[in-house]
UniProtKB/TrEMBL annotation:
Record has Transcription regulation as a keyword: yes
A Pfam family assignment: HTH_18
InterPro entries membership: Homeodomain-like_sf, HTH_AraC, Tscrpt_reg_AraC-type_HTH
The species this protein was found in: Paenibacillus etheri
Stored SUPFAM superfamilies: Homeodomain-like (SSF46689)
Lineage, opening ranks: Bacteria, Bacillati, Bacillota, Bacilli, Bacillales
Tree of life domain: Bacteria
Keyword Transcription in record: yes
Keywords: DNA-binding, Transcription, Transcription regulation
Molecular functions per Gene Ontology: DNA-binding transcription factor activity; sequence-specific DNA binding
Segments forming domain HTH araC/xylS-type: 1-89
Full protein name: HTH araC/xylS-type domain-containing protein
């Protein structure tokens, strides 16, 4: 099982208030914390799609999405194609 870190945990770990952490995070990354997490989750999903033969439901859960349909929607929004098409692009025919 994957443990997920929260914004409050990060703020506490860095000894900042949540509000100050949010402001600095946005200044440094150019995006808000939920957007950043979404990008990181999809980045991990891309890796899993290429490197494993795990089913879509398994990958969506591993990267933090309980709803596979929502995972597919976010993936398509950020990557521009469905997870299935993404995986298919990297299949090597022997």
């Amino acid at each position: 099982m994957i443990d997920y870190i929260t914004l409050v945990q990060l703020a506490t770990e860095t000894r900042m208030s949540s509000r100050h952490f949010i402001r600095l995070f946005r200044q440094q990354s150019g995006m808000n914390f939920p957007e950043y997490l979404q990008h990181k989750r999809i980045e991990l999903a891309c890796h899993l799609l290429i490197e494993t033969d795990n089913k879509m439901a398994s990958i969506s859960k591993k990267v933090g999405y309980q709803d596979t349909a929502h995972f597919r929607e976010v993936f398509r929004k950020l990557i521009g194609i469905s997870p299935s098409k993404y995986r298919h692009m990297f299949l090597i025919v022997v």
